[in-house]
Amino acid sequence: MNNRLADRLATVMFWAGALLVLLILGFLLGYILIHGLKDISWHFLTSPPQNMLAGGGIGPQIFNSFYLLLLAMLITVPVGLLAGIYLAEYASQSRVTESIRLCIETLSSLPSIVVGLFGLLIFVNMTGWGYTLMSGALALAVINLPLMVRVSEEAIRSVPPELREASLALGAARWQTMWRVIIPSAFPGLLTGGIIAAGRVFGEAAALLYTSGMSSPPLNFADFNPFSHLSPLNPFRPAETLAVHIWKINSESLIPDVRRVADGSAAVLVLVVLIFNLSARWLGRVIHRRMTAA
């Protein structure tokens, strides 16, 4: 076999692998959307599940999913970014650094159900919070921190060293170089890591079963007091996310139209993740252009 034939065979294999992935993804998306779009309506998207027997919807679950996403990312992104900066720029090869990397790799291999049980013991029981959004956000932060740390470290390491040297040669301090030169240059990679972490927040259910709970109190969306038990902004209240809601109604089957609600909820979850990813990438490109003056 000559080199030209080997190159063509390799190209065909690469294209076949890419097309296979696209076909599988297209089949899954098509199946979910075809079965679920017909059940989506404004009433379904805004009404609470308490009226499910009368054709209720998933309004509180959608809000809980976004609110949990906000809380989890407020914890994950700063901690993961700072840890990635330390490992990429400041840490030297030592036993401490190797221990940190070993801990990160160990955390990344933990099943989400194990993290959920850990969250039940620490964030739910030992803190006395009970099943709350904050407990779920901390559990999701434990799941996403290894990913965010590794992505941040690799994105920062990928910045050409000439940029660092030029900034330092012009008299900038090391932290100024990091903030004004390295992070803007590494922003696309950091954004990708943030989007992947956010997608895991939307789709996670196992860890949230033991931390944020499988039910939500009746919410008063006119109450903006974060200390009120019925306020949607209260982070210390039980909350059922959309992914947990899908699992719950399919496992319990206590409602007559479980198939309709499950199909519609799954379609909404897929659309929300898709719209969020596209919006985040568009916003990331805009911010990157402004930060780099490109």
TrEMBL record:
GO CC terms in record: plasma membrane
- Write out the GO biological process terms: phosphate ion transmembrane transport
Asked if Transmembrane helix is a keyword of the record, the answer is yes
Can you tell me where the transmembrane regions are? 12-34, 66-88, 100-123, 129-149, 181-202, 266-284
Molecular function terms in GO for this entry? phosphate transmembrane transporter activity
**Top-rank taxon, per record:** Bacteria
> What's in the keyword line of the UniProt record?
Cell membrane, Membrane, Transmembrane, Transmembrane helix, Transport
Question: Where found?
Answer: Cell membrane
| Membrane topology, as annotated | Multi-pass membrane protein
Q: Which Gene3D superfamilies match?
A: MetI-like (1.10.3720.10)
Q: Where is each ABC transmembrane type-1 domain found? A: 62-280
Q: Which SUPFAM superfamilies match?
A: MetI-like
InterPro entries noted in UniProt: MetI-like, MetI-like_sf, Phosphate_PstA
Its family remark reads: Belongs to the binding-protein-dependent transport system permease family. CysTW subfamily.
What is the protein name for this chain? Phosphate transport system permease protein PstA
Q: Which organism is it from?
A: Desulfotomaculum copahuensis
